[in-house]
């Protein structure tokens, strides 16, 4: 009987422990654009899905997306200058926006605003 109670106590303890884990939030990883699964967003930014569009053409996909968050324009620009080469994007220019190329696609990023709202506009089109 003692063995049975001990086993039951362990099962109850395990059930309580597992129930307690249900309230623990998962550790969030980086967010990504919905239509571009390998386009990361800086910490604190989220995609404004109502402001974007995507469609495929015979020449390739065309995607426009918008992300918003709090931060600093220079930090966002630095984030993409570091992240995009690791994802296969090659920098093209920096004339008021960031331009990149990868496997037949052109990416243009426009980063505007500061402080309470920074807006990142993503434009992807065939080269």
Strand content: 35-45%
Euclidean distance between termini CA atoms: 76 Å
Low-confidence stretches: 11-26
The ordered H/E elements are: HEEEHEEE
* Number of beta-strand segments: 6
Residue-averaged pLDDT: 82
Structure summary:
It is built from 2 helices and 6 strands, in the order αβββαβββ.
Overview of the molecule:
The chain is an alpha+beta fold and 127 residues long. Helix content is 27%, strand content 40%. The chain contains 2 helices and 6 strands; from the N terminus they run αβββαβββ. Strands 1, 2, 3, 4, 5 and 6 form a 6-stranded antiparallel sheet that branches. A hairpin with a 4-residue loop joins strand 4 (90-93) and strand 5. The termini are far apart. Mean pLDDT is 82; it is low at 11-26.
Any chance you could write out the topology, listing elements then pairs?
Layout: H1 2-21, E1 45-47, E2 53-57, E3 60-71, H2 73-86, E4 90-93, E5 98-102, E6 105-126
Antiparallel strand pairs: 1-3, 2-3, 3-6, 4-5, 5-6
């Amino acid at each position: 009987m003692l063995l049975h109670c001990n086993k039951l106590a362990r099962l109850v303890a395990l059930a309580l422990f597992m129930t307690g884990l249900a309230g623990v939030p998962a550790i969030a990883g980086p967010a990504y654009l919905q239509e571009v699964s390998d386009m990361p967003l800086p910490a604190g930014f989220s995609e404004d899905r109502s402001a974007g569009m995507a469609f495929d053409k015979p020449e390739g996909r065309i995607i426009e997306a918008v992300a918003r968050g709090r931060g600093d324009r220079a930090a966002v620009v630095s984030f993409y200058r570091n992240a995009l080469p690791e994802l296969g994007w090659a920098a093209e220019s920096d004339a008021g926006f960031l331009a990149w190329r990868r496997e037949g696609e052109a990416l243009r990023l426009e980063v505007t605003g500061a402080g309470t709202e920074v807006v990142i506009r993503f434009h992807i089109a065939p080269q």
